């Protein structure tokens, strides 16, 4: 039982909150509508001020909502426009905190999974995939997620999936090759095997052939073979990103999270966000969660790992701390990495 006077106070509070959120959404919407390459710097600054003035939760939800409404439409969005929207998220992700990028990424990936399963006719799938690709281009997310999505698409391998694989490879193929050439090689082998077995079923043979040729061009680092490939706009924005990001964190703030972890975040919690409270069921006897909760450190040399083993650093967290201390440039670098 809630007494009438308490009930009334609660209703007034709710109305006040709704009004505040409405006002915040209007402000964010106004900034997003004016977003373009020349004023990216000033708009990201104003967004940071809004983050300082309002609660992170409200800002994350409002920003994600506004961006999703702007970018996820049934018609194909211009590449430059999508890039500018994701660029803004990447600046806030590096300057405000990784929960900004994490919140947006989770919303995009869940929506992508939902749209892919629904067999929608529009271009929402491509738009969502472009958002994920640019989140990778601007160092918000690690290549692990991109490879997970590609593996999933290769495993289904119908006409629609082939289009999406081509779309993704055209956007981020050469970056994937640079980050993890071995995983890309394995993916190409798997795609070739799948193409051979599914040859009879697929009507559009030329598309499959074109996809395999694109993959081969990536493998051989041959940019001329990929029609319409233009790395210049991304490179231009990456240069701008280096001037706008306050900390020298670079790739350290990349979210190394898998597709499975993002899709099951509501059930198993969000280990990739520091301080993200988890009030769900205890995760005892869950083999998957044990693997997900590993502390991910960058690729350390086998020499350092061998030293860590000799010093009896027998848990992931101890190894991480040891590797950070042994490989950091100076005390500031060590401090930043340890805090992270």
UniProtKB/TrEMBL annotation:
Pfam families: MIF4G (PF02854). Residues 181-208 form a coiled coil. Its main location: nucleus. InterPro entries: ARM-type_fold, CWC22_splicing_factor, MIF4G-like_typ-3. It is found in: Nucleus, Nucleolus. PANTHER family: CELL CYCLE CONTROL PROTEIN CWF22-RELATED, NUCLEOLAR MIF4G DOMAIN-CONTAINING PROTEIN 1. Belongs to the CWC22 family. Plays a role in targeting PPP1CA to the nucleolus. May interact with EIF4A1, EIF4A2 and EIF4A3. Interacts with PPP1CA and PPP1CC. This is Nucleolar MIF4G domain-containing protein 1. It comes from Geococcyx californianus (Greater roadrunner).
